[in-house]
Amino acid sequence: MGLESAFGEGFITTQIDALISWARKNSLWPMPLGISCCAIEMMAAADPRFDISRFGSEVMRFSPRQSDLMIVAGTVTYKMAKVVRKIYDQMPDPKWVIAMGACASSGGMFRSYSVVQGIDLFVPVDVYAAGCPPRPENLLAALMEIQKKVDKSSVLQFQNNTMIEPPVVNK
Amino acid sequence: MKTTSEQQTQKSKILESLLLKNTGFYIDDALESGMVLNIGPQHPATHGVLRLLVQLDGETVIGCVPELGYLHRGYEKIAENSTYHEFITHTDRLDYLAPLSNNTAFTLAVEKLAGIECTPRAKYIRMLISEMARIASHMVAIGTMAMDVGALTVLLWAFREREKLQDIMDVLTGARFTTSYTRIGGVANDWTSQCSSMLKKFLEEFDHNLDEMEKLLNTNKIFIQRTENLGVISAEKAIDMGLTGPNLRASGVEYDVRRAIPYLDYDNIDFNIITYKEGDALARYFVRCDEMRESAKILKQCLDKIPQGPINTHDPKKVLPRKADVYTKMEDLINDFMIINFGINPPVGEIYSSVENPKGELGFYLVSDGSGHPWRCKIRSPSMVTIQSLPLLIQGHMVSDIVAVIGSIDPVMGEADK
Amino acid sequence: MTELTEKKLKEKFSDFITEVIYFRNEQTFIVNKSQILNILTFLRDDPELLFNFLIDLCGVDRAKRNDRFEVVYRLFSLKNKQSLRIKCRIDENDLNIDSVTGVFGTADWHERETYDMFGINFINHPDLRRLYMPEDYQYYPLRKDFPLLGIPGSIPLPKK
């Protein structure tokens, strides 16, 4: 806490940033929120042909508390939107979101009464992967874009500024 | 703070229906009350977004209420607002493990309604793609069932076989997954010699690879103990609950739509209907393995028998003409414009047509009022009916058996939720 | 086989059968909704007909002033490999019809889906609540007066 506020953007902190970003981007653990057809292409991205583990994402953690990348794959309906938001809230910082497929990016081919027209209406999205479903190589390209984004980020921007005030005992 | 009366009205109906169901089990100890466990929509082993509320006594399941609707995309309403050709792309996403099979089912239904029939070559191409879709879907079913039970290697080997089939689909249709390949009156592209050679190469290695996968599971004591006598359903109860497909045939009932109400050219192909008597999860696994071998047999026969000829029938008002003709000839341009914008206008009436999907019997009930849009399109999805019988199958078993049972009945939520 | 079915149904329930339609080799009976339980039980238990498999149950909105809705049952006989369709017309003012869950166990969720999409009430159904839409949804989506894009604001969305 004291180090960042005292030194600011200096030589040491940017080198530490680069080291931490290098470690983070090569070990992104995805949390696959596989809802419909795109989930099958996500599983195909994890099979021996389009290996996703060479990018460090070997463990597909199905627990939000242990992951830092959420891949929303599939059509999100109004009934499911609450669940997606809850899982996003349960992930610890730093976290990134890939909207995989046309349905997650913008509602896709389903313009009907029960489909949310894009998950960016209630979840902040970092990378959109287009396709219906996107080929596994497309998902890997989206992962590489996230890696570029992680590279440019610094440790300071993920401080949680909305902490709950500790209880005041003797006022 | 909510008052108690507000809390009462907020208590959801699904919990009420779970706790009030008469199950036949009773709890002897007054201190030990049942616990309600929520196996939520997001779960690694529920094959999609299925929510199960399970009432437990210790670790035994007393009652279960499934909740659907997390993937309800409104297909039937979309069908009422689009032409018959436009809906073919939507049918891909129903049972998204075997998209080619759904395309065939829908175009067969529309052709029955419109009164046209596809060419012999198109019939054999459709049979080839249906059987390829069946092998691909059963691969995923066996792979995920084995993964849920604990055998992870089988999933990776199954996906390797599936990738070979998806390469063939890529060459034939242009897309490896959601293909939208069949058209009303035939198919979109022709079956080439490159596809034939790729398929022959696949079939040469297929039996050996399937043997390798079965060697890991068939005599494996852990797999057998985890799936034997699990989720048993008798033949009468299965017929009463409306099960179809491999789930019904594993209980001993010989009902296969390809033999009961023959479609395409299945009368002239020689294959057996696989049935087992026990009706438990292990029998359902065996039925799927043997069905894959039968599909390989059908593929070999179709490759030998496929006739030469055109792939689309000639019916200017209903069948889309070739793109090369649309750009050069006047009548084809006008017919193309009329069909795309106003639809095919079948006669007034209603039909029901079904095929043998890998998951069961997929049926389309189409009501037409003479215009280019269907008046009502009801999709009879097999997965919805199988999930309906899930509470019966898991009653009395442990919590960890729920996952094995779901894997063995193989539901797909895209189809169950429509 | 289809003639045998028509003969047997007509001799037992002749006043309640309104119409018989043949189209593309399929047989359809339009019957009065008050006798639907008896008709289906008879078709299931008759030793020659044996229609013991209920394949599908759905509703149709005909968008006419009288008899707006229709409930369609599709039966199949495993022994004779014969199928049959039975339709009942329901008026908008009296949306009640008997539930057939006692005859066929599979009708349970099909009737729930019909209730969810059209609002048709099934009497004596063990557990009639919505299947696809959220529990407190107030509209019936597949009716012809409900727009495809839905009513904005009918299901709330979480905040960003």
Can you walk through the features of this model?
The complex is a heterotrimer of chains A (171), B (418) and C (160). Chain A is of the alpha/beta class and 171 residues long. Chain A has one domain (29-152): Rossmann fold, CATH 3.40.50.12280. Chain A has 6 helices and 4 strands. Chain A has a 4-stranded parallel β-sheet. In chain A, α2 runs antiparallel to α6 (136-152) and α3 (37-45) crosses α6 (136-152). Chain B is mainly α and 418 residues long. Chain B has one domain: Cytochrome-c3 Hydrogenase, chain B, CATH 1.10.645.10. Helix content of chain B is 51%, strand content 11%. Chain B has helices at residues 4-10, 13-20, 75-80, 84-91, 99-114, 120-149, 152-173, 193-217, 221-227, 235-240, 246-249, 257-260, 281-305, 323-328, 330-342, 382-388, 390-394, 399-409, 413-416, and strands at residues 35-39, 51-57, 60-67, 182-183, 186-187, 349-357, 360-368, 376-380. In chain B, a hairpin with a 2-residue loop joins β4 and β5. The longest helix of chain B has 30 residues, at 120-149. Chain B is globular, with a radius of gyration of 23 Å. Chain C is α/β, with parallel strands linked by helices and 160 residues long. Chain C has one domain: NADH:ubiquinone oxidoreductase Nqo5 subunit (Beta Polymerase, domain 2, 2-Layer Sandwich). Chain C has 3 helices and 7 strands. Chain C has helices at 2-13, 36-45, 107-118, and strands spanning 17-23, 26-31, 53-61, 69-77, 82-90, 96-98, 121-123. In chain C, the strands form 2 sheets. In chain C, strands 1-2-5-4-3 form a 5-stranded mixed β-sheet. A two-stranded parallel ribbon of chain C has the order 6-7. In chain C, a hairpin with a 2-residue loop joins β1 and β2 (26-31). Chain C is elongated and about 65 Å long. The mean pLDDT of chain C is 87. Chains in contact: A-B, A-C, B-C.
Write the layout of secondary structure elements.
The complex is a heterotrimer of chains A (about 170), B (about 425) and C (about 160).
Chain A: H1 2-7, H2 11-25, E1 30-34, H3 37-45, E2 69-73, H4 78-90, E3 96-100, H5 102-106, E4 127-129, H6 136-152
Parallel strand pairs in A: 1-2, 2-3, 3-4
Chain B: H1 4-10, H2 13-20, E1 35-39, E2 51-57, E3 60-67, H3 75-80, H4 84-91, H5 99-114, H6 120-149, H7 152-173, E4 182-183, E5 186-187, H8 193-217, H9 221-227, H10 235-240, H11 246-249, H12 257-260, H13 281-305, H14 323-328, H15 330-342, E6 349-357, E7 360-368, E8 376-380, H16 382-388, H17 390-394, H18 399-409, H19 413-416
Antiparallel strand pairs in B: 1-2, 2-3, 4-5, 6-7, 7-8
Helix pairs in contact in B: 4-5, 5-6, 6-7, 6-13, 6-18, 7-8, 8-13, 13-18
Chain C: H1 2-13, E1 17-23, E2 26-31, H2 36-45, E3 53-61, E4 69-77, E5 82-90, E6 96-98, H3 107-118, E7 121-123
Parallel strand pairs in C: 2-5, 6-7
Antiparallel strand pairs in C: 1-2, 3-4, 4-5
